[in-house]
Amino acid sequence: MKPEINIVKIGGNVIDNEAALSQFLQDFASLEGAKVLIHGGGKLATRMAEQLNIPTQMHEGRRITDADTLKIVTMVYAGWINKNIVAQLQRLHCNAIGLSGADANVIPAVRRAPAPIDFGFVGDVQPEQINHTFLSTLLQQDICPVCCAITHDTQGNLLNSNADTIASSLAIALSSTYDVRLVFCFEKEGVLSNPDDERSVIPEITRSSYATLKADGIITAGMLPKIDNAFKAIDAGVQEVVIKHAKNVLQDRGTTISHPNILIS
Amino acid sequence: MKPEINIVKIGGNVIDNEAALSQFLQDFASLEGAKVLIHGGGKLATRMAEQLNIPTQMHEGRRITDADTLKIVTMVYAGWINKNIVAQLQRLHCNAIGLSGADANVIPAVRRAPAPIDFGFVGDVQPEQINHTFLSTLLQQDICPVCCAITHDTQGNLLNSNADTIASSLAIALSSTYDVRLVFCFEKEGVLSNPDDERSVIPEITRSSYATLKADGIITAGMLPKIDNAFKAIDAGVQEVVIKHAKNVLQDRGTTISHPNILIS
Question: Which residue, of A139, A189, B102, B191, is most buried by count of CB atoms within 10 Å of its CB?
Answer without folding.
Answer: B102
